[in-house]
Amino acid sequence: MKIVKAKNTDLENIVLLDKEMIGTDRRKVEIEEAIGQSRCLLVFEESELAGFLIYHTSFFECCFISLIMIKPSFQRRGIASSLLSHMADISSTEKLFSSTNQSNDAMHKVFEANGFTKSGFIDNLDEGDPEIIYFIGKRGEG
């Protein structure tokens, strides 16, 4: 497994993976901006793109992972955990946050297995499915 920062030449492959997962390429501009600002990480398994992560640092001056996407054929192999762990190691802020819908049981397990703790929730983003916020301190101090 290899984790690297995305380059402009990776854009189309990332967008294809994202489109495979959500059925549209509506996040292409967001992905392109993240690549341009060095806020997109890629994970490769045997030279194949297995997933990506996008983050920013505008969440109350803390690092926030806004998107983790793992290709279906690579899910349940620890790839999301590797991305989270890597992000916790390289985070430019002492606090690292992320979130997932209340209904996303698999992602809750990934966060908890990686030392993240629940930090709150936001209603009214997705009707009837609150967004659960997770937190970990730098070097695993959660």
Automatic annotation (TrEMBL):
Gene Ontology MF annotations: acyltransferase activity, transferring groups other than amino-acyl groups
Domain N-acetyltransferase: 1-139
Keyword Cytoplasm: no
Pfam families: Acetyltransf_1
Record keywords: Transferase
Keyword set includes rRNA-binding: no
Protein name: GNAT family N-acetyltransferase
